[in-house]
Input
Amino acid sequence: MRDADFFRRWMVATAASVEREADRLTELDSPIGDADHGSNLLRGFTAVRTALDAEPPDTPGAVLQLAGRTLISTVGGASGPLYGTLLRRTGKELGDGSEVGDEELREALRAGVDAVARLGGAAPGDKTMLDAWTPAIDALATSYRAAADAAEEGAEATIPLVARKGRASYLGERSIGHQDPGATSSALLLEALADTADADGAGAGGAS
Output
């Protein structure tokens, strides 16, 4: 079972990962976006870490809802509403329980990803963050590490795709050959989730 501290540590690990990879995310965003994905997420997850430190929520759902609200209020562009929606919806699905099981988390994340798909009107194969999240949710049935690996593979698989949503879609076939920054940052979140589970010594069993 996963408690509020687990989810807080997941968000803190994500913030640290985004801080390390912010320049790379912006570099990926430069040819097909506004060259601000890394800086936007860095600002957002730094604010998330500050908010969680200031008044730590006492349930898993509350942790993710606070993180989502913070991202929406601090991050410009598309990434704030998309990541904010993902985390808020996941948190709402988890409800008010003090602990959640791995299967419950997997289904809550699926609901969060579905909410992102509706918000952005995107589907797997459109060269968006969904190309990382969709295979990762399925792989969560095996393990958190399998989900992280699936997300990384999904992000890399966006390279030959034509972008059909977001600013990159304006480039048409010129978007081919570039890895999607949103899928890449999504892989960072899932890597942080796997690392947090591994630190608890319970990452291998996954959300079965």
Remarks:
- The mean pLDDT is 90.
- DSSP finds eight helices and two strands in the chain.
- Residues 2-199 form a domain with the Serine Threonine Protein Phosphatase 5, Tetratricopeptide repeat fold (CATH 1.25.40.340).
- The beta strands are 2-3, 99-100.
